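Aim 2 progress update. The chain analyzed this quarter is reproduced below.
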Amino acid sequence: MPAAERCGVESFVRVLSKFKKDGENNSGMIAIAGSKGGCGKSTVTLGLAEAFARADTPAIAIDADRQLPNLHVMTDLDREPTLAVLDQGRDLREIAQQHPQEPNVGVVPAPKSSQSFEFSSLEEYVDIDGRQVLIDCPSGAGPDVVDPLSQAEGVVIVASDTERSLKAAETTIEMARRLGAPIYGAILNKCSEIPTPATRWEGVPVLGCVPERPSPLLNDEVSQAFDEIVEQLATQSPTDRAPPEYAGDRLPTGTNEIDRRLGGGLPAGTIVTLVADPASQSEQLLYRATGVRGTLYLSTEQSRENVRRAIESTSIGSGTPTIRRVAGDEGLDEALTLIDKLPETANLIIDPVNELERHDRSAYVSFLNDLKDQLVETDSIAILHCVDDDSRNRSATLRVADAVFELETVAPGCGSDVEHYLSVPKYRPDAGFTETIPIEFAGGNSMSPIESQPKSD
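Predicted structure tokens:
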């Protein structure tokens, strides 16, 4: 029997009202995420949507998986209109198709691969009174997940009881924390009891277990489990949902001026794009980064020997990176093969990334997703050197980036020193970061003696 009937409709709705934003109308946006494919995110998304509807809160389920959209298939609805038509001025409630079994649930299919909708703009479309919005995120830990996850007010982690799924859930938890997304809790799908690893997820309450049943969304036991989970969500206080602070060590970039402003460096798993003019000396920032930890340096233009000579001849502190050349039609595959062997807590530098950006967009976006997965897995950071030009996939590079550094070189006039300024127009860990940082290249090493010691690979 559904929870609303067991507890009484009136008392249940009264409890549920505490879950709504500001205590009344807008319930906000919840991301349903899990790094492992097949853990049941789509089932959980629809199950929660139906449970909210049974508790008198209409819901809209949004599919965010461009590559493997599933919500419209599971509900036997049309593939169109997709979420992308919001860019045409359409209303989210207007494009949501009615769930065939639950009239108070709307379903919105994911944009097609050919449609240019940016999930980073989703928040402006979902300020809808009285409706709970749920986002069915794609698998993995790449930019296709990061964008919808960044827009949500909180995240529900989904996992099954397999070792791979539980391990992948830990990756999703870590990613959510680095994005500052509140974790409402975890749902263990296809489980009759809580697997032991899930009991050790600090700060992640288990909201409930959903039993494995044939045709789960038509099963009374499954419906009851989702009703109880929604009731559990309703009892959480704002303190329960406060974004956890990132607890891991910051990884220094090797440039003190940057590291001081970023609280010691960058969170592990970060992708940085360094955008600069070819004559800006931006390579000096890359060379400094090689001096603080083991580095895989992928060159797309210069030979390995030319890169090594440039690093060894610089007056700043630098290390002894592993240097490889990747270029041509096989450049993406060669780069990915090398990145798959990235050790723990390492640097990856791609200099410049322009050559890889010229590949087919779908292949390049897939590469970025795989890159992000590997960085999260190894607690590493990547610096993608973007030499200013009209690369056709530059927008994809900037979208995946957790931080965008733009280096500007200023020559005040005859007899004056050239000056360098770093601006940070995008920084996911702190969206309010707006400083411009003066960078000093002259005068030798900007790092401490310990930082400047070369690291072996």
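Confidence is low (pLDDT under 50) at residues 1-27, 244-248, 443-457. Residues 188 and 209 are 5 Å apart (CA to CA). These observations will guide the mutagenesis experiments scheduled for the next reporting period.
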